[in-house]
Amino acid sequence: MTIKEADRVLPVTAGESDPLRERRSVVQPSRIKIYEPLIIGTLSVVIALTAWQLVANARIYSVLFLPGPWDVAQAFVKLFQSDDIWLDIATSGSEMGIGYGLAVVVGLVLGMLMGWYTRFQFALDPFVNFFYSTPRIVLIPLFILWWGIEMQPKIAVIFLGALFPIIINTMAGVRNTEAALLRVARSFGASDALIFRRVVLPGSVPFILTGFRLGIGHALTGVVVAELIAAKHGVGQIIAIAGQTFQTPKMLAGVVLIACTGMLLTTLLQRIENRFQSWRPQIR
Amino acid sequence: MHDRSAKLAAKGVVIEYWLHRSKTLFTAVKGVDLEVRPGEFLAIVGPSGCGKTTFLNAVDGLLPIADGSLTLDGREITKPGPDRAMVFQQPGLLPWRTVLGNVVFGVEAQGRISKAEAIAKAKHQIELVGLKGFEDAYPLELSGGMQQRVNLARALLTDPEMLLLDEPFAALDAQTREMMQLELLKIWSQTRKTALFITHDIKEAIYLSDRVIVFTRRPGRVKNVLEINLSRPRDLRVKRDPQFLTYEDEIWESIQEELAVPAERLIAGVPAA
After folding, report:
1. Given a cut of 90, is residue A7 above it in pLDDT?
2. Which of A187, A191, A203 has its CB closest to that of B86?
3. Which of A150, A157, A233, B101 fits as disulfide partner to A91, beta carbons 3.0 to 4.6 Å?
4. What is the greatest pairwise CA distance in chain A?
5. Which of B170, B168, B173, B184 is nearest to B232 (CA)?
């Protein structure tokens, strides 16, 4: 009898002798706990929108000055019923795609070369520092002079905007390779190519993805600002024209469109980042 | 004078390196003469900073020697090679690779066998170091002792002529360290690979070794050599054997003489922090 009881006692380590505590720490988190971030986040957005709507409904200011969220939502729907919207989105989208895509390719290559070969870094550092410390948007007038108001100036601005964060972060990733890991690889006689592929590159992934994420922010700023200044089509152009013609809800609808794109892309990258980090123990 | 039967032979080895901050040439070891016999377990102990780890790095081929000669089976050591494998003080595991992935990393780096073959052999090796069932765990999920088992398995899988161990148990807690010593001996007795073991732990050195070499303070040289005549296999009780304690006293006294040097002389030449 007593032996049987002893057999049933679960092994408990120090500090977990309280059975209640033990259970709480081992059992998988409840459904509510898992969805907590989503629930709280949604609630706070709903509250903020309601507050905004209430203030707007009071009509202390005209719709021109302070449209409510409902006005913006209606403008958003109307925006998508217009004929030009898809052309605008396609224009901004391809500018973004081409510019950012080029920045990823060039940034990765240059960043890795600069991280791996010190002399290459010495050669390029002045340029990287010069451009990184300058808002690349100020070059728009020059690009318009070169290419007019077609897509090229926007692509150039997006490219330059995203390029430098990607270069700098990739380089930092390569540079931050743990000395102990390099020593192990060298000790086993690994070739430089193998060290790069198996040690340096995987170790740089978190840095590189951070660079991509920062790059997206810069690229979005680039596309909108460039289109605000001069463009034939594009979401930035919608915002510019709506603003100049006092269609404030439509203008804000354009802003929402940009913001959603940014959030979507960033979330996507965050997902990829998490996939690469599955080896890290969960903090929660 | 050269003993043809020696596995590793060091003659008048000098290792220097340039210190960038103080712009001085730093002599880590100066005139090391020693031989490691085939199949022997040899430990080097010495006061901290005596250059014993530096010497081991030179044996591994990671550091060049400034003077003297360092040969393995009569061949000059100039760079790392598949005839040697190092077990590091810090495990140095790739955090994004599983235990299995880390164990095969050594042979993968050497590029001598196919990945499939490596994985098959690795499974056996993982079992040998007592990590069966943890093949798919990531290093950050392992304890320090388990990480060092991976470190050891990675070196053993390359099937080296000579195993180099750089204070592999120094960072472990006392109990884990003793268990690891016991298991290392068990594994070593199965393979009988020539082993060069660096440690600052005198008991550890005696317990594991056939011979213990004491280094002088920096720049390190061989101060004396002690044959350890304790029968194998050894269990942990050997550590209380009167003969064991005699060895311990002898080595401790030898090291103490080196520590008793005035502090200024120890510090001289070392750059200010």
Report:
1. no
2. A187
3. A233
4. 93
5. B184
Per CB-CB distance under 8 Å, the chain B contacts of A184 are 86, 88, 92, 105
**pTM for the structure as a whole:** 0.81
Chain B residues with CB under 8 Å of A280 CB are 95, 140
- A181/B105 Cβ within 8 A: no
A133 in reach of chain B (CB within 8 A): no
- B118 contacts in A (CB within 8 Å)? none
Going by DSSP bridges, is the β-strand pair B222-227/B211-215 parallel, antiparallel, or unpaired? antiparallel
**How close A9 comes to chain B (CA, Å)?**
25
Q: Are B163 and B155 in contact (CB under 8 A)?
A: yes
How far, in Å, CA of A61 to CA of B179, rounded? Answer: 77
Contact (CB<8Å) A202/B96? yes
Q: Considering CB atoms only, which of A194, A279, A281 is closest to B109?
A: A194
- Percentage, residues of chain A above pLDDT 90: 66
Q: Does A282 touch chain B (CB under 8 A)?
A: no
Q: Which residues contact A202 (CB under 8 A, 6 or more apart)?
A: B94, B96
Report the C-alpha gap between A48 and A54 in whole angstroms.
10
Asked if the Cβ–Cβ distance from A180 to B85 is below 8 Å, we say no
Chain A CB contacts of B95 below 8 Å: 279-280
Output the pLDDT for position A284.
45
Question: pLDDT (tens digit, 9 = 90+) per residue, A14-48?
Answer: 444 444 444 455 566 677 778 888 999 999 999 99
Q: A261, A76, B206: which is closest to B197 by C-alpha? A: B206
Question: What pLDDT is attached to residue B139?
Answer: 94
* CA-based nearest distance B87→chain A, Å: 9
Q: Is the Cβ pair B80, A189 closer than 8 Å?
A: yes
Contacts of B142 in chain A (CB under 8 A): none
ipTM of the complex: 0.88
- The pLDDT, as a whole number, for residue A248 is 92
Subunit contact A281:B141, Cβ cutoff 8 A: yes
Distance of residue A153 Cα from the nearest chain B Cα, in angstroms: 41
The mean of the pLDDT values for chain A is: 87
DSSP chain B: ---TT-SEEEEEEEEEEEETTTTEEEEEEEEEEEEE-TT-EEEEE-STTSSHHHHHHHHHTSS--SEEEEEETTEEP-S--TTEEEE-SS----TTS-HHHHHTHHHHHHT-S-HHHHHHHHHHHHHHTT-TT-TT--GGGS-HHHHHHHHHHHHHHT--SEEEEESTTTTS-HHHHHHHHHHHHHHHHHH--EEEEE-S-HHHHHHH-SEEEEEPSSSB-EEEEEE----SS--GGGGG-HHHHHHHHHHHHHHHHHHTS-HHHHHTTSPP-
- Which residues on chain A are in Cβ contact (under 8 Å) with B90? 180
State the amino acid at position B48 in one-letter form: S
Position B47 scores a pLDDT of: 87
Per-residue model confidence as pLDDT tens digits over A59-110: 888 888 889 999 999 999 999 998 889 999 999 999 999 999 999 999 999 9
Residues B218 and B267: their CA atoms lie apart, in Å, by: 10
